[in-house]
Amino acid sequence: MRFGVGLPTCTEGMMYPVPFASPADVVRIAVEAEALGYYAVMGNDHMTTQRYVRDEYRDPPNFYEPLITYSVLAPQTSRIRLMTGVIVLPMRAPVVLAKQVATLDQFSGGRVLLGVGVGAYREEFEAVAPGQPAHRGRMLEEHLRALRLLFTQRRATFRGRYYAFEDVELYPKPLQHPLPIYVGGNAAEHHRRVARYADGWLPAALTPDEVAAGLARVREFAWEQGRDVSHMDVAVQLGVSIAPTREQAIERFEASQLYRHLVSLKSSTMRHQAVASFAERNLLGTPDDIRRQVEAYRAAGVTHLAGLLFVANTVEEFLDRLRLFGREVVSAFPEDGA
Asked: CA torsion sign, 120 to 112 to 181 to 1?
């Protein structure tokens, strides 16, 4: 099992209070995560503030663009992977994004893990591209095909409904061949996209049983496509509340900003799921409880607990939880912790 840390790039007002992390704090978290043996940091991507966040906070949150953030982190780290979770492809131009990602992979020594998705909040897309009639899922699929061409062909040409470019010679290519691309999403349409286009699946807040069922569908769809996904990275994002008792952990979790964010996803990312309790689909409890939960996810086929979101109200509290989880959980899986 690999373990990754949710980097607070665009989390203020959503998973954490406003304000939460300064640029220097983001660097501190990444450097400490590497020292503690975590496999990756994972920054999320937002362009504008969501309506529910505006309703709750008087001041706007600070959202740091993840690729620019990683250009700062790359020379201050040496081993930890730089994962996006997720870059919202419908808000990006394929050629520009491909150039940015390939450059970052070169300068970081081949440490980029590119997680992509449609984005949880359509309102953001409508703010960035007002009046544009678009099916974001189809935009995502076109974008994925375009990125593969740009990353692999000497001269790339693409003509789709939403994107087009002609005879683009994009060099240098990413240092990694192929550059790992993860597709985020919990629903059945995302299972098909993972099976067709991805090197990894990046769902969020699923139970072990839901992961196992989704992975079976991904493998079925991949078989239909003639793809072998036996080595696919199954990277689930979960919240973490670690405490002396499970009851205390659940109490802290349900009082947190992270919990309110998960509730907001019931109408988007998690709209196809019957969510009776978020306590059963995150890592909550004592260190012993959480180690057992990690084992259950591993048995379901999870290979990577990505972008773990620690319940915290301050950066210092976040770092304290990061260290405790590293000592008590990551260290219990020494064969694959790094």
From this structure: negative
